[in-house]
Write a sequence for this structure.
């Protein structure tokens, strides 16, 4: 269950800025519910906008290489019950529906494209209610494939992730090498959204932790390093990022991107 998907560009909404940074301000971060993220600007202008209703993020507009929209819908407990992704380049609609168990914890996600369900994820948690393992089942074109994902934590952050397909030996999928000491500044619903991409990609696992990742690696289906990324954050006096410089290494090529962030602090 590795990172190949026709909805890869939808995943860019979650994966653009999830790796390393060097902190330049040590003040504690403000809760993102008090300072919701409004937009992210890149080298060519605005690349992402966030639409909120009260404390709920309902829509994300991306202007990356392929314009993408993510819509979140909530139940009567204000818990995200579904996520819908559409891209300008495709007529397909990718929908993830979430099932909740006791303590309002997600136990299962059902993934479909254009109304055809093709993937189910079942989630297990440790004694701290941190996601610990996932069983993924994909049924498509008459084939059924099962996979398992196992997460290891260090200081309430995801340190290593292992994955396997069917009865094969597990291989390394993700390493969170270092995290800062600030609460994650991305919307809390990103943790829910990330559950919808298990079995598709390996570059979102840091969202299941407590802090912002400052270095990490993504691995391919052979357990070899696929991408390394560094992000240098510049924080304001409230501990929120105002700028970042991302340096990524993939296939021997290095790319650099500078982004800025806008928050709506109450």
């Amino acid at each position: 269950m590795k990172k190949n998907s026709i909805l890869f560009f939808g995943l860019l909404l979650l994966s653009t800025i999830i790796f390393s940074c060097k902190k330049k301000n040590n003040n504690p971060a403000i809760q993102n519910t008090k300072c919701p993220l409004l937009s992210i600007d890149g080298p060519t202008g605005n690349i992402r906008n966030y639409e909120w209703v009260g404390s709920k993020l309902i829509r994300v507009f991306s202007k990356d290489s392929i314009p993408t929209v993510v819509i979140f819908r909530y139940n009567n407990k204000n818990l995200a019950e579904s996520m819908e992704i559409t891209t300008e380049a495709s007529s397909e609609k990718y929908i993830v529906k979430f099932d909740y168990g006791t303590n309002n914890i997600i136990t299962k996600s059902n993934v479909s494209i254009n109304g055809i369900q093709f993937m189910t994820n079942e989630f297990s948690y440790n004694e701290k209610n941190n996601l610990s393992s996932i069983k993924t089942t994909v049924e498509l074109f008459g084939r059924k494939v099962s996979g398992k994902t196992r997460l290891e934590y260090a200081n309430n952050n995801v340190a290593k992730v292992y994955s396997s397909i069917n009865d094969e030996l597990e291989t390394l999928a993700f390493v969170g090498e270092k995290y800062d000491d600030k609460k994650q500044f991305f919307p809390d619903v990103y943790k829910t959204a990330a559950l919808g991409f298990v079995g598709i990609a390996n570059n979102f696992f840091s969202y299941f932790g407590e802090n912002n990742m400052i270095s990490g690696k993504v691995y391919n289906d052979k357990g070899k390093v696929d991408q390394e990324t560094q992000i240098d954050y510049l924080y304001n006096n409230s501990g929120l990022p105002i700028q970042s410089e991302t340096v990524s290494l993939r296939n021997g090529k290095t790319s650099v991107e500078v982004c800025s962030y806008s928050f709506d602090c109450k």
Q: What stands out?
A: The first strand starts at residue 37 and ends at 42.
